[in-house]
Write a structure and sequence with these properties.
The chain has helices at about 5-10, 50-60, 120-140, 165-170, 185-195, 210-215, 225-235, 245-250, 270-275, 280-290, 290-295, 300-310, 350-360, and strands spanning about 30-35, 70-75, 90-95, 145-150, 155, 175, 180, 260-265, 270, 315-320, 325-330, 335-340, 370-375, 385-390, 410. The protein is α/β, with parallel strands linked by helices and about 400 residues long. Among the domains are: about 5-180, Alpha-Beta Complex (Spore Coat Polysaccharide Biosynthesis Protein SpsA, Chain A), CATH 3.90.550; about 325-390. The chain binds 2-acetamido-2-deoxy-beta-D-glucopyranose (2 copies). The site of one 2-acetamido-2-deoxy-beta-D-glucopyranose has 4 residues, from loops.
């Protein structure tokens, strides 16, 4: 029997969704293309409403095989058919976000206050859905593969094949489109402790470890951080629902930019079977129990990147770089984060870039850069793309989309 104390202390436990009646219509496919449409609650743009429709329209136009998948639009009860237009041959299912479908905080986490008030509750719930709970929810709905689109994600050139088939056919498990850099200030310590406790090999250094580059924000030898993360990472009885960091780490717990390289996961495609396998579920539960989502807004991007880097062989990674893809955040009419990356198979790649710059950066000193990217471990060729990040972060570094300095992006 679970004791009251254990519940209060937030001991990690398996999470069981109840999906009966969560979605409209019937499942027709094992492949799901997923949008999360939050009308209220967003950290970003209050007028979000119809970027969702525009995003879906871009996929319907450029990706014919969407007709072979199901489209799931997750929402909090404030979206309906009249908000999106799609051809009748696309199976669009509206699904309700609720505690029983993985929407909300983990047990014992209701009183955790985020370190910065600008992180909205809806944004942090979204993180938990993509990092922790959504995998179980989709599995219970009968899906085997998940492709994510954000409501500000756009396909800008054609994809003439079925992305899910490409994943299955090549034996791949995690597919991504672009890279970005995000802070690993405390999360890096969490991952290191988890890794040590579970006898996992060290992560390959990508050369951008936050504490090395900005040592004044970290302890000299990393020890205080390790002590704090150990309990959260190891899931022992009595693990605290929230890590109590030494005072000097509390000031600015999340720093955008100079962290490690990760998958820019506003688009990804992955196997639900892998994410719900025991080693990955265990890591998801440990991340959930740490409460780092709700105390420090540690996000699904850094979590997914860590899970894949720790637990998935490089041979199962698959970068997609053939199609042009846009994902950025607009505040007050300006792009404040993210950008564009062209695809090597976009016949109009040059025009895709000039159109984008004219539309979004007419008055900003932003230009496109070249990157040569590797797609799979097994293929030593590099493919040419161009990318336009929004500019530099407050730390003076480019962040998203990202390409290493040498202009080459191997599967690191
Ligand atoms: C959705 O987007 C399409 C394509 O741009 C447009 O024709 C349609 O009017 C939009 N529908 C809604 C409900 O916004
Ligand atoms: C290795 O790559 C080639 C293409 O470069 C592909 O045809 C082949 O199926 C790949 N093999 C594995 C095991 O992924």
């Amino acid at each position: 029997m679970r004791t009251r104390a254990a519940v209060l202390l937030g001991v990690a436990h398996a999470w069981h969704p109840a999906v009966q009646g969560a979605c409209t219509r019937q499942r027709r496919s094992r492949d799901a293309v997923v949008w999360l449409g939050q009308r209220k609650h967003s950290s970003y743009d209050a007028s979000h409403g119809n970027t969702l429709n525009a995003s879906l329209a871009s996929v319907v136009t450029h990706y014919r095989a969407i007709r072979a998948a199901d489209v799931l639009i997750w929402h909090e009860g404030d979206l309906s058919r009249s908000d999106v237009d799609s051809p009748s041959e696309v199976n669009v299912r509206f699904c309700r976000l609720a505690p029983r479908t993985g929407w909300g905080r983990g047990r014992g986490q209701d009183r955790i206050r985020p370190r910065e008030t600008r992180w909205s509750e809806g944004y942090m719930r979204m993180i938990r859905f993509y990092a922790v709970t959504g995998w179980d929810t989709l599995r219970h709905l009968g899906y085997e593969w998940w492709m994510r689109m954000d409501d500000d994600s756009f396909f800008l050139s054609n994809i003439d094949y079925n992305v899910f088939d490409a994943m299955r056919g090549g034996g791949y498990v995690y597919g991504f489109r672009a890279l970005s850099r995000e802070c690993d200030r405390m999360f890096g310590a969490f991952v290191d402790v988890y890794r040590e406790d579970h006898g996992l090999p060290p992560l390959l250094d990508d050369g951008t470890i936050f504490c090395e580059r900005v040592p004044k924000h970290c302890s000299r030898d990393g020890r205080p951080l390790r002590r704090q993360t150990r309990r959260a990472a190891s899931r022992r009885r009595g693990a605290r629902p929230e890590i109590r960091w030494p005072r000097r780490f509390r000031a600015r717990p999340y720093c955008e930019g100079p962290g490690r390289v990760g998958f820019y996961n506003n688009w990804f495609v992955s196997s639900i079977e892998w994410w719900t396998s025991e080693p990955v579920s265990k890591f998801r539960r440990a991340f959930d129990a740490s409460a780092l989502i709700f105390s420090h807004r540690h996000n699904d991007l850094i979590f997914q990147s860590a899970a894949v880097r720790l637990l998935l062989a490089r041979e199962r990674w698959r970068r997609f770089a053939d199609f042009s893809y846009q994902h950025h955040t607009v505040r007050d009419g300006r792009v404040t984060w993210g950008g564009l990356e062209t695809g090597y198979d976009d016949p109009d790649a040059k025009r895709t870039v000039t159109d984008y710059l004219r539309r979004w950066h007419a008055h900003n000193p932003v230009s496109s850069k070249k990157c040569r990217v590797q797609l799979t471990r097994n293929d030593s060729r590099f493919y040419d793309v161009a990318y336009v990040p929004h500019g530099r972060t407050r730390w003076g570094v480019p962040a998203a989309p990202y390409c290493p300095k040498a202009g080459r992006a191997p599967l690191w």
